């Protein structure tokens, strides 16, 4: 018994994220040039009977070098902060939308919308459902239709247990496997964060997906 029902509404193409940023100031470099001019004038005008020790010059250079590095560090931190704020502002646009993702999504008895795309020339198609550990939880023959369908998650013994599931589609011609491909499922975005792996979107039921795992975006 198939748990696939009538097609759902069409989706729209995903939108790209943008990030903010700013250019650094040249003030620090200008101050350093001013310091060199002042140091040169100091050398020219020092008392020949009581010249400044070389160690004094070294102390002055070291002190100004430290100030110069601190100014540049502050500029860099400012740029990073502005970039993060701009990026997080862009991420806010994802929240409340529905994304189509190949990452595992949460199933709690309510139908999930899947995007089914059989291989050209297929005469039989199987939908394979995998649990959070990647183990096969269900395999069922479905029709040859293409597009969005509602998957109810039902088996002969009743609905699948609540949990995270991912999907793949196996297309056959006779006994020959034409293709095995991941199936996208729609889920609503509840949050977003920037991680070392990229932008990660929070989905219901403890699921999440990287931006690279998202193939479409639409209004919920």
UniProtKB/TrEMBL annotation:
Region called Disordered, residue ranges: 1-24
A biological-process GO annotation: bacterial-type flagellum organization
InterPro entries linked: FlgD (IPR005648), FlgD/Vpr_Ig-like (IPR025965)
Sorted UniProt keywords: Bacterial flagellum biogenesis, Cell projection, Cilium, Flagellum
Domain (FlgD/Vpr Ig-like): residue spans on this chain: 107-173
Top-level taxon of the source organism: Bacteria
Pfam family, one: FlgD
Keyword Aminoacyl-tRNA synthetase: no
Family to which this protein belongs: Belongs to the FlgD family.
Record's function text: Required for flagellar hook formation. May act as a scaffolding protein.
Protein name: Basal-body rod modification protein FlgD
UniProt source species: Paracoccus salipaludis
């Amino acid at each position: 018994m198939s748990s696939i029902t009538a097609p759902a509404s069409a989706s729209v193409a995903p939108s790209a994220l943008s990030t903010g940023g700013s250019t650094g100031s040249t003030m620090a470099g200008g101050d350093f040039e001013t310091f060199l001019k002042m140091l040169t004038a100091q050398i020219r005008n020092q008392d020949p009977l009581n010249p400044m020790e070389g160690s004094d010059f070294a102390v002055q250079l070291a002190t100004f070098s430290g100030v110069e590095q601190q100014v540049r560090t502050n500029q860099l931190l400012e740029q990073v902060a502005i970039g993060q704020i701009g990026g997080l502002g862009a991420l806010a646009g994802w929240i409340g939308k529905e994304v189509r993702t190949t990452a595992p999504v949460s199933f709690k008895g309510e139908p999930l919308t899947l995007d089914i795309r059989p291989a050209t020339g297929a005469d039989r198609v199987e939908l394979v459902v995998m649990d959070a550990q990647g183990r096969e939880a269900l395999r069922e023959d479905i029709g040859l239709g293409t597009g969005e369908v509602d998957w109810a998650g039902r088996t002969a013994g009743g609905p699948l247990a609540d949990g995270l599931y991912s999907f793949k589609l196996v297309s056959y011609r006779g006994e020959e496997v034409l293709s095995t491909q991941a199936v996208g499922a729609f889920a609503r975005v509840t949050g977003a964060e920037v991680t070392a792996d990229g932008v990660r979107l929070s989905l219901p039921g403890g699921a999440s997906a990287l931006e690279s795992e998202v193939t479409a975006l639409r209004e919920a």
